[in-house]
# Entry
Amino acid sequence: MRIFKIMTKEIKENLTDKKVMAMMVLFPILLMIILGFAFSNTFNNNFKLKDVKVIYTDNGSKEISAGFKNFIEKGKEIGIEFKEIKNIDQGISDIKNAKYSDYIVLKNDNITTYKNDRNGIDSNIVESMLSTFVDRDKAISAIAKANPFALKNITADSNYNFVDVVSLDRNRQPTSKDYYSVTMLTLIILYGSISGVYAIDSERTKKTGNRILTSPTKKYEILTGKLLGTAFSLLIQSAIVFVFSKYVLGAYWGSNIGIIFLLILSEILFSISIGVGLGFIIKKGNTASGIISAIIPFIAFLGGSYFPIDSISSKVLMQIANISPVKWTNSAIFQIIFSNDYSFVSTALLINLICAALFVGLSAYLFSKEAF
Amino acid sequence: MKAVRFERLTKRFGDLVALDNVNLEIEEGEIYGFLGPNGAGKSTAINIICGLLKIDKGNVYVFGKEIRRDPDFTKRNIGIVPQDIAIYGDLSAYENVSFFASLYGLRGKELKESVEMALKFVGLEDKAREMPKNFSGGMKRRLNIACAIAHRPKLVIMDEPTVGIDPQSRNHILESVKELNRMGSTIIYTSHYMEEVEAICTKISIIDHGKIIAEGTKEELESIITDVNTVMITVGSVTGINEGKLKEINGVRNIEISDNVVKIISSKDVNNLDKIILYFTSNSIPIKNVESQTPDLETVFLTLTGRKLRD
Ligand SMILES: Nc1ncnc2c1ncn2[C@@H]1O[C@H](COP(=O)(O)OP(=O)(O)OP(=O)(O)O)[C@@H](O)[C@H]1O
Ligand SMILES: [Mg+2]
# Structure
C-alpha cells in the first residue's frame, strides 16, 4: 500500500511538471514532424531513387557483362536511369560537369567507376548496388584517378549494405514519418532516464527523502514505488507520443502493436533503472543528468535515431552500433512493422531487461548501505 | 514513563565527536528544549532518535523500547519537524500532508480528517489546495510542521522550527507547540532563540560540543548563575574595545559584544565595576549607559560555555 502511495506521488509530480512534459512529449512530437518533413525525400517513394542517372560503356568480358545487365535491370526497378555511351572521354567530362551521378566503364574483367562529389549519396547507392551484382574484387581492381580534384574513388574496404534495402523493397518501406515516429519515441524514452535520476535526487535536495525514512516505510517500498512510479509516468508520456504519431501524423506502426508495446515497456524499464541507479551512484543529480545527456546522442546515433546508419555506413560502424541498446530496440521494432520479422525481439528484450535488472540490483544495494 | 532516554550515547563523524557519552531522560508530557550554539549536536541527537543516523555507542529508548530493537514502533510514535524544510513544492499543501500521513498507514476518512486537522492546526486550511512553492517562508515552516503531526504522534520533535520567519508565524508556531502538548504529545524543541525556549519549554538542557552541560527548568538553570553579576554597558562605538584586556580585569568571566552593548559577566564576590568603567574612560570610549542585568538563560549560556548562542 505504501508502495502504491509513493508510486502515485511520483506520477503526480512527473505528470504535472510542465517543463518535464514539454521535454518528454512536445519535443519528440516536434522532432517527428520536423525530421519527417525534412527527410521525406530521402525516405519516400519506397526507396525509389529520383534523378539518379548513370552512364556506362560496356567493353567487358562475357561474365562481367552478364552481371552488369542484371544490375541495370534491378537499378531500373528502383528508378535509376541508364544511358550507354561509346566515348570514354565524353563520359568522364560529363561526370566532371555533374551531369550524371556515375559513369561505369566495363573493360575486359575490370569495372571502373567515376563519380562526382556533388552527387555523393546517389553514387554511393549506385556503387554499393553495383558491388552486390558484380564480383566485388574485380569491380574495384581498377581505380580511376583521372582528376583528384573532382573525382573520388571507390575505396577497397568500403562496404555498402544495399542488399538489405533491395530485399526490403519487397515489403513496405518506412517513410521518414514512419521512421522518425519509431526512433523519436525510443529516443525520448532514453531521455526518460533523467526522470529516474531526479526521482532519487529530488528527495535529496528537497530533504523529503529523510522525512520518508523517518516514517515506518521500508527502503524496498521506497525503491519499488519510485521505479514503478517513474516507469508508469514515462509510459504515459510515451503513450501520448505514440498516439500522436499514429493518429495525428498517421505514421505506420504495423499490425502487431502488442509486441511493440512489450519492447517499449522493456526500454522504459531499462531507462528508468539506469537513471535511478545513477541517481544513487552519483550524489549530484545535475552531474548524473549531465552525463546521461552527453551519452545519449552517441548511443542514439549508433541506434539510428537520427538517420538509418545501416544504409550509409561502414561495416566497422555497424559493428560498433551493436553496443547501442536502442539499436536493438529500434531494429526489432522496424523488423516487426515492415518485415513481419520477430528475430530481433528476444535479443532486444533481453538486453533491456538484463540491464534493468543490473541497475535495480545496484540501486537496492547502494540504498541499503545508506540513506539517499 | 520516559518518552526518551539516552544511555551513554556517543556519535562520531570521523574524528569529530558530535555526541559525547550523553545521558538524558525526557519525561512524557514535557516540552523539552535543546539549547545550544551551531554545531553543538542538537540535530545529531534528533537524527539518532528518529533513526536517520546510526548509533556508535550507547542506547536510545523511546517510550521504553530500544530504537534498534523496534524501529517500527519508534517511527510510528514520532513526528519529526526537520531543521531543513522537507516538503514537495509541486504538490498542494493538502497532498503533502496526506502523502506523509499515508505512510503511517492512515487511510480513507481517517486520513482526510487527520490532514484537515493538521492543516487547521498550523493555520493553513485556506491554502490547502495551493502549491507550497508559492508560499512564504513562514507558511512553508508551518506546512513543515503539519506534515509531522497529521498521524498524531506521541512524541513530536521540532528542530529549529522557527528559523527565518516573521514574528506572526513564529507566535503561531509557539502557540501550536503548547497546544500540541496540551493535547498529549511530548515535545522536543531545539532552538537558538533563548526567548522561545524560555517561553514554552518545561525543561531545558544546554548542549555544547556534544555534551549536556546543564539541565533543568528555566528557574533551576538561572539559579546556577546566582554567583555572577551581569553588567551591560552601552557605548558610542565598540570599535577599539579589546576583549582580552577586559578579561584581564579581576573577576571578569565572560564578555559578549553586540551592536554597541558590552555585556560583562563577573563573579559576584569581586567588586570590579570601578575597574571596568576605568577601562572605558581611559581608552576614550564614551559610556552612554550602565545597567546591571538580572540573570537569564542567555547569561547562563554565556557563563557556562563562554560562547554566544548565535554568531
Ligand atoms: N553527516 C555529517 N558528517 C560529518 N559531520 C557532521 C555530520 N552531521 C553533523 N556533523 C557535525 O557534527 C556536529 C554537530 O552537528 P549538528 O548538526 O548536530 O549541530 P546542531 O547543534 O544541530 O547545530 P545547528 O544549530 O547549526 O543546527 C557539527 O560539528 C557538524 O559539523
Ligand atoms: Mg541542527
Summary: The interface with chain B takes residues 1-2, 5, 9, 12-13, 16-17, 206-208, 210-217, 371 of chain A (CB under 8 Å). Residues 135-171 of chain A have pLDDT under 50 and may be disordered. Strands of chain A lie at 53-60, 81-84, 102-108, 110-115.
